[in-house]
Design goal:
The protein is of the alpha+beta class and 186 residues long. It contains 5 helices and 8 strands.
C-alpha cells in the first residue's frame, strides 16, 4: 500500500514540475505519459497486492479448516475419557496411590517470589488427563488463586513423570484426574 501511495505522489509531483516548468506541447505530452505510467504502476501494484491478499486468505482458510478438524478429532477422543473413579484399575503414580502424586507436587513446588511478595496463598486445583500411555495431557487450572501460583501449579503437574495408566477390561484407558496444589506461606 505504501508503494502505491509513493508512486501516486511521484506522479503528482512530476505533473506539477512539468506544468510549472514549461507550457510547451512536449512537456504536456511527457506529463501525460508520466501520469499514464504512474497510473499503470499503481494499478499493477494494486493487482499484485490483491493477488497476495487472496493467496494469504486461502492459506488462512485452509489452516482454519485443518484446526477445526483437529478440534473435532480431539472432541471425539474426549468421549473415550472416563473419570478416574470409574476405572476398574486406578492410574498410579510411581507405583503408589494418588497421595504419591500429591507428595510429588508438593516436593517439587517452587513458591514464586512475586506471590510471596504479594502475600498470595491458597489452593489451586488442576484438572488433567492421564492418557492410555500414562502421560499427562491437557492440564488446566479449574480453581485459581493468582497467575503466579496457577502457572507454578501447571508447571509442576506438566513436568511430572509418566503414570501407570488406568485400565478397564484389561485395556489401558485415558482418565480425567484432579489434584489440589496447596500454597501456604509460613
Amino acid at each position: 500500500m505504501k508503494k502505491i501511495v509513493t508512486i501516486a505522489m511521484i506522479a503528482a509531483c512530476a505533473m506539477m514540475v512539468f506544468s510549472c516548468k514549461n507550457n510547451g506541447k512536449e512537456e504536456e505530452e511527457a506529463l501525460k505519459n508520466a501520469a499514464g505510467e504512474a497510473i499503470e504502476n499503481v494499478e499493477g501494484a494494486a493487482k499484485g497486492a490483491a493477488k497476495k491478499a487472496g493467496k494469504a486468505a486461502k492459506e488462512a482458510a485452509k489452516e482454519a479448516e485443518e484446526a477445526a478438524d483437529r478440534g473435532i478429532d480431539a472432541l471425539e477422543k474426549l468421549d473415550d475419557i472416563i473419570p478416574a473413579a470409574a476405572a476398574e484399575v486406578q492410574p498410579t503414580f510411581n507405583g503408589g496411590s494418588s497421595d504419591a502424586f500429591v507428595k510429588y507436587v508438593q516436593d517439587n513446588l517452587v513458591y514464586p517470589q512475586v506471590a510471596i511478595d504479594n502475600g498470595e496463598s491458597g489452593r489451586v486445583v488442576v484438572n488433567f488427563i492421564v492418557d492410555a500411555n500414562g502421560k499427562i495431557k491437557n492440564a488446566k487450572v479449574v480453581t485459581s488463586v493468582s497467575n503466579a501460583l496457577d502457572a507454578e501449579a501447571l508447571r509442576v503437574v506438566n513436568a511430572a513423570p509418566d503414570w501407570t495408566p488406568a485400565k478397564v477390561g484389561g485395556k489401558a484407558v485415558p482418565v480425567a484426574y484432579s489434584v489440589p496444589v496447596v500454597f501456604a506461606l509460613r
